[in-house]
Protein: Glutamine--fructose-6-phosphate aminotransferase [isomerizing]
Organism: Aquabacter spiritensis
Amino acid sequence: MCGIVGILGKDAVADNLVEALRRLEYRGYDSAGVATLEQGHLAVCRAEGKLKNLTHKLLRQPLSGRSGIGHTRWATHGKPTERNAHPHVTPRVAVVHNGIIENFRELKAELEAEGACFLSDTDTEVVGQLVDREIVRGKDPVAAVEAVLPRLKGAFALAFLFEGEDDLMIAARRGSPLAIGYGAGEMFLGSDAIALGPFTDLVAYLEEGDWAVITRTGAEIHDESGAVVVRPAQKVPPGTLLVDKGNHRHFMAKEIYEQPEVIAHTFGHYLDLTRETVTLPDLPFDLAEIDHISITACGTALFAGSIAEYWFERFARLPVSTDIASEFRYRDTPLGKNGITIVISQSGETADTLASLRYARECGQKTVAVVNVPTSTIAREADMVLPTLAGPEIGVASTKAFTCQLATLACLAVHTGRVRGVLSEDDEHRLVRAMMEVPRLMTEALKLSPEIEALARTLSKARDVLYLGRGTNYPLALEGALKLKEISYIHAEGYAAGELKHGPIALIDETMPVVVIAPFDRIFEKTVSNMEEVAARGGRIILVTDQRGADLAHVEAMQKLILPEMPATVTPMVYALPVQLIAYHTAVLMGTDVDQPRNLAKSVTVE
Ligand code: F6R
């Protein structure tokens, strides 16, 4: 995952920038760089690979400037080479960037039409060039950045340094976190407060849409509308900057809010955003030759697998069976020689999932592990590892690992469909474009948080809650019910909406909230019929949908949570966020231990 740091210091900052980047190393990266102002002029030093390569280069070409920005890059647009490493520097601007600029292609075409030349394959360089153009047109750096930000589509964080401006750094947050550190006559910036640990314990967090003009005397923070706002600096207790909660009350909230950023990194790993293709590492088997996929996992990871089942069937026309790992391992499941087994696990240590992996190997199957901890036992024992790159997940209830599992599995399903000739090149481009939009769509989805917090007041009084969905939103309904149960201790059930009338409808009365996850899609009408069945029996519907769905569902709903419209493939990733927030806000109101709910462990290494 990319990391951003910035320092307006009293002395040379290059070493401290590297030190701050070192604290972000745990997030993973494949190149790094710093830019400083040397007697007013922008100078840059970048290196492929680990920070030690950058340090060696800095020994040969020392930088002595007192102002600088730095970056560790996880390649998204363009290979992890030195020329694609950040910072990207124009004659007037240096920029570092986390996330994805979705509309970089059209912005690049616009700049190229005016004669601009690009030195890298990144989307980031477009931002630097746009700001540079505004300065050439006569704007000062602050006005230039202010003019460019509204033109950028996507979820991202940015930091800028300017030629000739020794006391200025500008930062902007849209979907990717940024923290400002306050020192005495010095200021700091980090994409994670952990980076600022050695320098200051006074930290303010930018809110969504904020941008900040930072000088050595402080920071003027603006919200998305441009209005000056106050984001109070908080004292961070010493030692807590190792794994911190940021400005969130719980790790779970932090992890929910990190999703636009971490999913961008996961997609960055598996997509070539320039060519709009999926790029997977070499697989130890030929996807064109397999005739069956078995997916096995536990809990939330299992629901990610159940969603992926729909994708593999649709995109690759392959039969898939998805199993609870604790059942799979004892069922003597016949596994044909031409099948593969995919195991999914955040921790990579879950006992039943590991045993299932071993069983599949004994049966002669090739195995793929979708894991978040790359050093785990499951990762070590599988034939092939697809890391989920969600970063450390501390909250016991899985959130960001789930959506990153979905991202990884979606990439694998699309790739399988291509290899098997089911999907055309155009299909692949279309699906990749849809995936690229997910970080931004997630950022939009998070804006529902205040509405969901209000709704949680009603939910926290319920004894039971039903979740309904069809297609990929059926496993998401199961996940919604699991999330609510495990952190709020309210009894909840997930059902396929069409299954309601075969039993669970007996539960419906006016005390029963029913969360219906139903984006407008080809089976929306069917879900509306199921909602009517609930409404007719007094059930209180909470409809999670888009505007078209909200307009067409002529059913009395207690509340409608409206998300942006999006392609059907990506709905489970984006709709997961309101589902997680429903559980989170309800649990907070109930006063439970959100991060460590009773009886639960993060890594279940027993049967
Ligand atoms: C639910 C949750 C659990 C895990 C399950 C598997 O929020 O976190 O259901 O998903 O215990 O754990 P991993 O993914 O580590 O194998």
